[in-house]
Design a protein that fits this description.
The chain has a single domain, classed as Endonuclease/exonuclease/phosphatase (Deoxyribonuclease I, Chain A, 4-Layer Sandwich), CATH 3.60.10.10. It has five helices and 13 strands. A hairpin with a 5-residue loop joins strand 5 and strand 6. The protein is globular and about 50 Å long. This is Endonuclease/exonuclease/phosphatase domain-containing protein. It comes from Paraconexibacter sp. AEG42_29. One of its GO terms (molecular function) is catalytic activity.
Length: about 220
Amino acid sequence: MRIITWNLFHGRALPPAGRDLQDDFCAALQGWEWDVALLQEVPPWWPAAFGQACGASARSALTSRNAVLPVRRWIAQRVPDLIKSNGGGCNAILVRGTSIVDHRVVVLRHRPERRVAHAVRLATGEWIGNLHAQVHSEAFAQADLAVSAVALDEWAGDTTPVILGGDTNTHRPHAGDLQVMGGHGVDAILARGWRSVGAREVLEHGTLSDHVPVAVTLKPTP
């Protein structure tokens, strides 16, 4: 199973592009090989369009700054580099090749801002989670990872193979008994009951986002 994790920087580029980049991000995702894409800092109106364009099932979970979302969306689509993260945000999971049969969300914290983890169960039985941990605090980031691991155990069972990826906001992510399968900077993919096949890959993404997309290929352990 090939997993991608990518923080989309609220749909912006570096240097700033000065325009809406939904089609550009969508084209990047369409062009890569993956089975599951774990996305963070996604404009909330993007996941459904991404799913349709990529031939994928999509699930999302709102994070922070989503009050009066139609107004935020109107501004973000016209001047994304002015409104920045105040355009609203969500986490999203896209799945190709099989269907999603369950979707669960856990709120990690409300302060200093709302953070969530969410996970899907695939028709093939796997549970795969996605999170965006709190930034600027090692303690908060590790706490968010710990809560995410506990939630995955509750949803999947503590002996079922699981995958958890996302923007961990720490260079030393710990999440229960999950092991790091690969990553880049603070973006990582962890798992239990899986092993990595080959090295992790950093995908070509041009100027899109301030994070790099990271891909890891996993196989179940015996």
